[in-house]
Amino acid sequence: MLGLLVGLLTAGLGLGPASASASTDGSASTDSLAPTDGSANTNASSAQYTDTGRPPAGQTVVFGIPGLTIDDIDPERTPNLFHLLSEGAAANLNVRTIGSATCPASGWLSFGAGARAQAGPSPIAEDADPDDSARCPTMIAPTTDGSVDAEDGATSAKETADSDEAHGDESAAGTTTARIEGFDAVKEPNIGSGYSVDYGMLARAVTEAGSAVPAGTDATDADSLLEPCVAAEGPGAAYAVADEDGVVTNFTDDALATDCRLGVVDLGAIGIRSWLFDPIPNYSYTVPPNYDRETRVAEADRRLGVRLQEVRENAKDGAADPTIIVAGLGDSSGLPQLRAFIASGPGFEPGSLSSATTRTPGLLQITDLAPGILDVLEVDSPRAVGFDSTPTDDDPQQRIDDLVAEAQKSTTIHQNLSTFSITLDIIFYILFIACAVLLNRSILGRRGGATRASHVHRFLGWVSLGVGSVPMGAFLAGLLPWSRMADPGLGLFLSVIGTAAVLFVLALIPPWGRTWRGRVGALAGANLLILAADLATGSHLQANSLLGYNPIVGGRYYGLGNQGAAIFIVSLFIFLGLVVSWLRTRGHRKAVIIVPVVVGLAAVFVSGNPSWGAKFGGTIAILAGLMVLLALLSKIRLTLLRLALIGLSSLAVLIGIAFLDWLRPAGARSHFGTFFDQIVTGEALQVVGRKLGANLHIIQVNPALAIVTPLAAIAILIFLRYLLHFPRVHAGSRTGRLVNKWRGRLPQLFTDSDLHYGFLAAATGLGVGLVLTDSGVAVPSTGAMVLLPFLLALSAEHAEEAHR
């Protein structure tokens, strides 16, 4: 069986996307760049000769406007942004770095490093308003006088001056070497964060790529070549290009007037009073008393228009058109949102952008930008991720509306997620209490309650069946355009209830709807089929779902999420338990083993295929549960040693698949290959530590969710009739009176051993998922919220027997 599984998953590796670096063919870049004044990198060894027949590339300029969203773009208020979007491609941008919201300094730092980073120091402006702690640190403008802080790490001012002088020799014409004083304090929040930050990676990669001169370039064309450098204008841009010592090699007051092939310009941030200190210029990031967002957005657009005119005026004759990129590199308040990204120029047709890391048209993350820009410049990057373009014939306003609808969906989900989770927690607690009441002989036996107990039990079965349809309703809600309603929150609520009601009705359709087993089996089977079909077609229902993943959070963008994995595990094994029981009663002895093997391996393939589910820990959990189920069905006695061997075998299979995925190009790898790369580079332990911290954070922010897991274990143990195996105690003792209230009053559900085995397999899968999955505490907690309703609904079939 393991050999068959390896073959299936290995075949799935061939379904992965091609390297993302090929997604920008014909873009606004070329290797044919060389210095014209004998400055940086003029040695012959750095020159590469290619016969492309293309004109020298035009300058690429990145304008950063933290806080900008697609919703801010309007043909009347922001004509320059609207024009860029009309001619180029756009996307919503996830700017999450470390923490729930991203200050501009953190956004700029992450942009330049191509990795999540947080910028310090801690804000000192809290003295102005002690009750308002949601403040961003003030940006530190670079200095060019060679001075340095004692905190900067230099042993002496002389060494610092010598270092600056050395960098000064590398500076391009029109720029100078500058230094961000106190840069150690800026980097301090990243120490021990679990993320590796390569400060200034973007600028260093462009510089190290050196000069490239096309064969046959004549003197006229040579005058149009650009230098392999990155010019930084403004404090944010300085944060992006500074090296680990805070040195900015090419700092300037006008990045557009230089001959650097890449210019980075800080146009200021769009903020609100409680978050930033002064958006839009003078780079002080302090908010004036008369702050108005629309006014500031219009001001940002006006300043952008001025700079775009300079780009056109400074363009070199004979060179290709410049490439313009505008990015909202950070949030503008304590409320995180998706921000704007626009790219216009050669190679960017009107449409949407994505990357190999998101696999979602119209969605990028901030760590994609540096490798994507390097791909545009045809410079190798460590991650080999490029921009994938999806052209469209839609008019610009329609494209804006579509992106705004997706961003609104993410924001609404983010705002309502806590309420939805707490509601599910409360429902679970109510069901848990109802479970205890139904099983206690003394409560329902009083005052004639026993005569009504079976009716109460069946009523609870109907309620549980309805509750069991809600989690999948949260996924199916994504099929409806609720985010375009006037009140998206109400639209989300109605969509979840409506789709859950449809599932509930489907579970009642004959022939399966005539029995409780048929109803639960239909619901579990529907969950299984819907999730599998969604994963095979791009996991669109997982994204922007109350039980999936949110692009604003950015922990995952495709594949099977933790909560989806929990529902998948429970639905799989409850469905298999019911099907095996049905087959056995009809004498299909061979099918009792064949069906679980076929369905189980298909489920493992769907979850583990790097192009579909790409769920490392969840796939091990499913495989372990499947092996337990098959062992029980085969009457193999499960010992601790055999359980350990099952776990090790499952892990070995997935490590092998991760190795095969790792062999693919970096831009085409899934979470499997990324994890194996972390093992190779020695970052695995750091990542595991970060994941454990995420589990603790979940418990801190939602302790009610953490309590669900032990309560679920108690409920499952009761229903699995383990209380019957308690040692008999004296009936008159306190312990005896407690135990005897429950003994013998358990539902007859698990007299069916096949169904019993299905529940054991589900419990095994959830337990393994707890240990091996990122933020794994959500796996058993979410699984319990499906498992207990299924269990109560199934027990309603024996309501009369349970209360005789």
TrEMBL record:
Start-end of Basic and acidic residues biased regions: 159-170
Coiled coil feature spans: none
Polar residues bias (residue ranges): 38-51
Protein name: Uncharacterized protein
Keywords annotated in UniProt: Membrane, Signal, Transmembrane, Transmembrane helix
Native source species: Brevibacterium sediminis
Region of interest (Disordered), ranges: 20-58, 119-181
Composition bias type Low complexity, residue spans: 20-32
Bilayer-spanning residue ranges: 417-439, 459-483, 489-509, 521-543, 563-583, 590-608, 614-633, 640-660, 704-724, 755-772, 778-796
Signal peptide: 1-22
